[in-house]
Here is the input.
Amino acid sequence: MKIALFSAKGYDKDYFDRINKNYHLSITYFETGLNKDTSNLTLGFDGVCVFVNDNLDKETIEKIAANGIKVIALRCAGFNNVDIAAAQANNIKVVRVPAYSPEAVAEHAVALILTLNRKTHKAYNRVRESNFSLEKLTGFNLHNKTVGVIGTGIIGKAFCNIMLGFGCHVVAYDVYASDELKHKGVQYVSLDELLKQSDIISLHCPLTPETKHIINESAFTKMKNGVMLINTGRGALVNTQDAIKALKDQKLGYLGIDVYEQETNIFFRDLSEEIMQDEIFARLMTFPNVLVTAHQAFFTGEALEQIATITLQNLSDFENGETLVNEVKG
Ligand code: NAD
Here is the structure.
């Protein structure tokens, strides 16, 4: 089976080539993302392998279907960038990697919290310049603080476990409560109650029409003054303009994001010699209490290994007519 792998980076090639020795698929790597303008590259392939910022809207799907694509393999968990109904209508199967290393993402959320709180990024630079002053580096104890977790699926669960270990009081909001977490002391509350009680809020729900801008102006008004917001979910969970207003009003005391609503044109590339065209992102970068990482929460060796293995297994199952255990259905 011939696979076109889009948005390919060196690390994708390293892991896929090594693990593909067990699967023997024919993989062609394209640095470009897949969208309606690049869909002609899929001609002659049986399947595509895509990542978080490839845009498989209805138009792209119709074009790749016409080129003979029969399977879309997402090498990620979220599938908000694929029009699932359009894929089904065009007889294209969609598979994903539902769980590769939930700890990787959960631990990165904790890294954002600790960095913003204890300002180790600033301390690192100061000490390198022989500035050993502690002025403005004051943090706060995590112990006894209330952490609100929105979405307690596999990543949210791993995150709750870590925060319980810090001695935090963990409150959660999810459409389904986890008995396992309840037994460990996590308290499920309404969204409003979570926003009201939390010192730190971390987002771990998928991006859906219901969760788009779940954190907006109205949500910020319900939060404590000086609250910390962490988003390792998807950018559009947060209305960035409203977050900027909350930062200016000092309602939002800290913002740590690994994802950004308009990240497609920014993340996963070196723009160090270019002019930043995104005014909202440029404004975000001016705040001393904002920390941005470029969608790297998943990025551990363990996760890359799992992503390549599960994706190749998904494609191999498709080729062999096996049950698709990781199929995404509408
Ligand atoms: P999951 O499906 O295991 O868990 C999602 C949880 O969100 C579920 O418990 C679900 O019930 C809950 N949920 C759904 N709709 C909700 C709503 N309206 N309100 C509250 N809760 C709701 O998914 P997961 O593997 O834990 O991943 C969560 C998200 O993290 C993914 O959808 C993806 O967008 C994001 N993610 C980011 C990275 C990264 O590198 N930054 C990596 C992997 C996943």
Summary: The radius of gyration is 21 Å. The CA atoms of residues 255 and 290 lie 5 Å apart. The first strand starts at residue 2 and ends at 5.
